[in-house]
Amino acid sequence: MNLMYKSTRGQAEAVTASQAILKGLAEDGGLYVPEQIPALDVSLEALRNMSYQETAYEVMKLFLTDFTEEELKNCISRAYDEKFDTRGIAALKEADGAWYLELFHGATIAFKDMALSILPHLLTTSAKKNKVENEIVILTATSGDTGKAALAGFADVPGTRIIVFYPKDGVSPIQEKQMVTQKGKNTYVVGIRGNFDDAQSGVKKMFGDKELAEEMNRAGFQFSSANSINIGRLVPQVVYYVYAYAQLCAKGALKDGETMNVVVPTGNFGNILAAYYAKQMGLPIGKLICASNDNKVLYDFFATGEYNRNRPFILTSSPSMDILISSNLERLIYKIAGEDAVADRTMMQSLASEGRYGITEEMRARLADFAGGYASEEEVAEEIRGLYEKTGYVIDTHTAVASCVYRKYRKEQKDDCVTVIASTASPYKFTRSVMNAIDKKYDAMSDFELVDELSRISGVAVPRAIEEIRTAPVLHDTVVEKDGMKEIVKKLLAI
User: Fold this and answer.
1) Considering only CA atoms, which of 155, 151, 137 is closest in space to residue 206?
2) Which of 83, 148, 226, 292 has its CB surrounded by the most CB atoms within 10 Å?
3) Per-residue pLDDT tens for 209-234?
4) CATH code for 91-109+232-460?
């Protein structure tokens, strides 16, 4: 039986998985969610002996029911291959009492690779299944990592183009260099004078622009999304939590059925939502600990029941989390509202018009699986330095947010559950912030001197993704005002 997908706002028709992947965003502005969360139908004992690719198939077949076995296995094998520098795809490292789930072994050294390596294959397969003749234009906003991972995934994929918007002054130098040096005749990178929320709002606005859609269609194009609003991004993220649990059982760190906690550094809420879906499928997850940086809109939401983006936007050393509008939270809001589309719609309208909304006490009670915490800039630096001095293990700034929040949570709650911390980016992606945290003397070095020094002190080889950009020429230098996004899209597509 086909699992269908419906909009959180209830005014769009239910669609198949492949149609939801193609559309990205529902016509009514809502996000697609499965009509029910499927239950894992394979034993934990069996999962222990499975490769990452095999685990991916067992999880994703339950969500993407209109894909044939051959189609799905083909997407998986093309995605999770030698692009990753470890055979296990996702690695688990123990350090100072916690397990760090390294999700950064892909082509762009960030966790976004885990989903964006497979999304192009899911999308092109979906297009064939639905007899789409238009060229698909991937339109996406990035706070730093999604952009490069999506560009790398879609570069020169036939029948697609990709346009990435990023905040010109809101990403790390390495992140920016990775994007603006991207090869591929179908790739476009545009900086905006604004922050990530401006970029994301601009993209969402274009998705909802019916006049633009008609112009695009006449020119032989249609939009789709590579942001985590696309269900084709979210479903592959569920896989690595299932895989992590099975691997911990295989290592003897967990007994079958024993509960594990998960800590996720969170901006747009997609990564932790995937862990929530894994729990809903039957994976023995205890607490889902949502870790925020100084832009602690999610921490405040879990603490008070009010989501309020009316606050200063703070640029931090963990820029991929510098977000005040967490798009994927809508999927959780819809769930805890008892799948009441009218209630969801009302709250999202309030967010758009007033910048805030509140949830009921009944809804708050349904958030019992979650805990929130945040780490200041000073605490992030202390966490990086402390963990390195104690264990020799070097983590990036985003992982440090989660690691710090984990330690505070454990101390406060006296919860000794085995804990997995989502390590979302390589420290090489944020070399200056990481090295300055370890010792202020490093600030005198250039970006690539820091790269070599990080390799020396960590004993970890410089990733291919970094070596490639040392001398790579800048290929994309377009910068526009935040209200010029639609015009530049039309210009790039010559419509």
Assistant:
1) 137
2) 148
3) 999 999 999 999 999 888 788 999 99
4) 3.40.50.1100
**Helix, strand or coil, per DSSP, at residue 161:** strand
Spatial contact of 409 and 373, defined as CB atoms under 8 Å apart: yes
Residue 353, Cβ neighbours under 10 Å: how many? 9
Q: How far is CA 13 from CA 6, 76, 174, in A?
A: 7, 28, 42
CB 285 within 8 A of CB 241: yes
Surface-to-core class of residue 493, CB atoms within 10 Å of its CB (0-12 exposed, 13-18 middle, 19+ buried): middle
Residue 377 token pair? 């800039």
Residue 127: name the closest of 241, 10, 21 by CA: 21
Q: What is the pLDDT of residue 144?
A: 77
- How far is Cα 162 from Cα 141, in angstroms, rounded to an integer? 11
Please name the helix (run of DSSP H) or strand (run of DSSP E) that holds residue 223, with its range, or none.
strand 221-224
Name the token pair of 375.
Answer: 């780490």
Beta carbons of 450 and 432 less than 8 angstroms apart: yes
**CATH topology of 91-109+232-460 equal to that of 133-227+463-495?**
yes
| pLDDT, position 172 | 87
- Quick one: tokens of 176? 């920016």
The token pair that represents 153 in the structure block: 């995934």
Please spell the DSSP secondary structure of 445-471, one letter per residue: S-HHHHHHHHHHHH--PPPHHHHHHSS
User: Does 1 score more than 80 pLDDT?
Assistant: no
Query: Per the residue annotation, which of 6, 112, 287, 429 is the catalytic one?
Result: 112
Residue 112 annotated among the catalytic residues of the structure: yes
The tokens for 201 are 């709002």
* CATH code for the domain defined by 133-227+463-495: 3.40.50.1100
Nearest CA to 290 among 258, 332, 256, 230?
A: 332
pLDDT, tens digit, 9 for 90 and up, residues 287-318: 999 999 999 999 999 999 999 999 999 999 99
**Residue 164 and residue 147 in contact, taking contact as beta carbons nearer than 8 Å:** yes
Could you tell me the pLDDT band of residue 33, with boundaries at 50, 70 and 90? very high
For residue 225, the model assigns a pLDDT of 84
Q: At what angle do helices 377-391 and 431-438 cross, to 10 degrees?
A: 70
